[in-house]
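Most newcomers find our protein records easier to grasp once they have seen one. A record pairs a protein's sequence with a compact description of its fold. An example says more than a description, so a record of this kind follows:
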Amino acid sequence: MTKSQTSAKPKPSPKAQPPAKVQPAKPKSSPTRPKVYYAIFLIAWVVLSMIISQSVVGAPMFWLLGEKFIQPLWTGLYYLLSYSLAIALIIFVPPRLSKKLSTTPTELGIDRWPTFVDIGLAPIGYIVYIMLANFLTQLMRFFPWFNADETQDVGFTAGYLSGPEKIIAIISLVVIAPLAEELIMRGWLYGKLRSRTKCWVAIILTSLTFALLHGQWNVGVSVFMLSVVLCSLREITGTIWSGVLLHMLSNGIAFYLLYIAGFY
């Protein structure tokens, strides 16, 4: 045995390391919760903006004009100003609060002009809407508190419009209202909801909000089904134009029956 072999010292065994502490797993937040909060914010913002715009425009006009406020000219001006303010609040204010709330033309459904497909789908959608609305209305008649014959107050007195006044009413009800409501409801609200939720969820939430804003049970049932069809057209075509045309068609037929044919 050599000297180097006899003098070699055994290497000390490495000290045992204490077991690593296991950190408790952090509970994962539910992925659906932010979507719920987001949907609640969008719906609340639309409802609040509509109420604010109608109050801000309507209250001063009623205070200044008194009974003249119900005249068609001032009612038409009220439609124009209140919808314009609502669009400004709903579409242009949220991006000031957060860049995530900025909106693109594609999200609004206005990234292209109407096509012949949009025009052709509008009357088809109207027929589907009438069938669904009548079916749901008949079901609702089983509830004693549901009044299917209640007249909707649109701001114009039926049967008492002259020629120029009818033109103002047509512009307000058949042009301004459909354009503004589609841009707000099936454009901004549905576009925002659809980017975060499933198609059917976005349709139901948008339609319930649209029905709620009309404030009457019988009208709410009808416009709920109208909104379901309008959202479906938005989903099919990718834009709001077919829905705008359908909405104009629906309001135009109702205007004829109410203000021209005299069915009121």
Q: What stands out?
A: The chain is about 70% helix and 0% strand. Residues 34-260 form one domain. Residues 2-6, 20-27 have pLDDT under 50 and may be disordered.
